[in-house]
Amino acid sequence: MARPPTIFKRSANLLLQYIADHVGVGEALPTEQHMAELGEGSRTAIRSALAHFHECGLISDLKERRLLRKPVRTDYFDLDELRTGADRIREVLMERIYHSDLPPGAEFSETELARAAGTSTISVREFLIGFSHSGLIEKKPRGGWRLCAFDRSFAMELADVRQMFEFAAIDRFAALPPDSPAFAELRQLIARHEQLGSVMPTHHKDFPALDRDFHAFLMGQLDNRFAQGFFDLVSLVFHYHYQWDKTQEMVRNEYAVHEHLDILRALARRDVGGAREAMRVHLSSARSTLLQSIRVREMKAHPG
Length: 304
Fold this sequence. Notes:
By secondary structure, the protein is mostly helical. It is 64% helix and 3% strand. The chain has a three-stranded antiparallel β-sheet. Strand 2 and strand 3 (145-147) form a beta hairpin. Helix 6 packs across helix 7 and helix 10 (207-220) packs parallel to helix 12. The longest helix is centred in the last third of the chain and has 30 residues, at 272-301. The termini are far apart.
C-alpha cells in the first residue's frame, strides 16, 4: 500500500487536534468546507482524512460523521513523517552547528549531510545552493562546502528585519477567529515550554529545537514564502553564533523559555499589546547575546 501524502497527514493531525478540543462524543464533525479550512488542505485531503478516521473507528460513517470516541495519541501521524527532505537537512545541519560538530570555517560534504538526513545528495545540493545566498555557507572551488562567519552590520540588519516579521506575525495571530486550529497549537507550545521550564537547567540543551518550533509557529501565521526563507536564515544565524560564547548558554536558554512563555500566554489571552511588549523584550535579549557572541568570535580571531 502506498504511503499517504504529507499534506493528508498534516490535515489529519490538525483535524484530530480540533476534534479533541471542540467535538464531543456523539456530535457530528463540521462541514467539509469548514474542515478544509481547519485542516489547511483540499477537500480531497479532508476526505482521505475522514476515511482514515472511519477506518480507525473514530467516526461512525462518512455521511453523518459522528464522533465515536476522542482521539488518542496513536491516531496521530508521527511528526517525523511530516517533515520534508529540506526540513531534515536543515535540522541535521543546525544540530551539528549547535553542538559544535561544525564550527565556523569547518568543511562538510553533500554526501555526509545526505546520509545523516536520510535524503539524496541532489536534495542536499538544492538546499545548500538555495541557502548559500545567505552568505553563511559557501561552495568550495574543488567540491564540498564551508561554514562562514559574518560581521556586526549583517547581524544588526538581520535583527531589524526579524523584528518586523515577528511583530507582523503577532498582529496576524491576533486577528484569527477563536476556533482557529492555531490556538490548539498555541496551547501545545505553552505546555511544551512549561514542561521544559520545569526541568531547567539540566535540560537546557533541549531548548534550540523548541525555539525553532516557537518561531516557526509565529512565522507560519504569515503564510509567506519569503518570511519562511528568512526564518531559516535567522534560525541558523542565531544558534550558529551563540556557540562562540558558551559561558552563559544555560542561563540564556533558561531566560528564553520564560520569555517565550510571556509571549505565548499573552497571545492566548488575545492581549496584543502584552504579546508585542514581551516579543520586544525577547528580541532585545536575542540581539544582545548575538552581538556578544560576535565580540567573542572577534576576540578569539584576534587575541590581544
